[in-house]
Amino acid sequence: MAPDVGKIESRIAKLREEAEDCGRRRKNLYEDFKDGILTKEEYAMLREQYQEQADGMRYACGVCGKRLTRRNGTDLYCNRGYMLRDCECRQVVMKEPEADAIVLGELKRKLRRVLDEEELRLEKRADVLAAGSRVESLRNALEAAKKAKQKLFEKLVDREIERAVFLERKKGYDAEIGRLEQEISDAGLAERIDRDADGEARERADVARSFLDVGEMTEEIWERFVKGACVYPDGRIEVRWNFGDEME
Fold it and tell me: What is the pTM of this model?
């Protein structure tokens, strides 16, 4: 008797919807824990409950997009492939520890790149600071311009220069002082932005460094870094990351 494809697809769709709902709840739990809404004990208890529901839901079939199922403890496979004999999904089979190792390895490569880039950025920034602050240099130039303008006044008082000469030179000093004051303001803002960026760079580097020595996938890694992963018939895994360009 031929299988009822419509019923099979309906059942798979329902299972997928349940999996997605469970995933959203688990993500919300983590956000509530980070925001202090849930205590550590409450988070651990609720996470364990959702973990029981979420078993086998992290990986999806790269052919049909349906969530994989766990069998015999560690075997991941696509239900659709076993229900439809000629479906390519039937070839989507992988041991979960092997899949976890691939995902973790890819994550570590990304984190290593982030760490290297942020450390290089901080090193270059340190070299710039060692060479001296642009704001400080501009302030010194401003002080020199003001002193030169003061001497110009003294020359006028001592009748060493004509008033017309004084006014012409004063106009030049006023323009120079105005320009330097604006540059100091702009440079100060730029340095504050750089300091904020340095703080963000250090934070990203610290995060990357803290996970480089992890030996296996953990719940925190899944919730913090990974949206999901698709397994393909050739054994390839495509990971959908839970972070944006700042970690790319």
Answer: 0.52
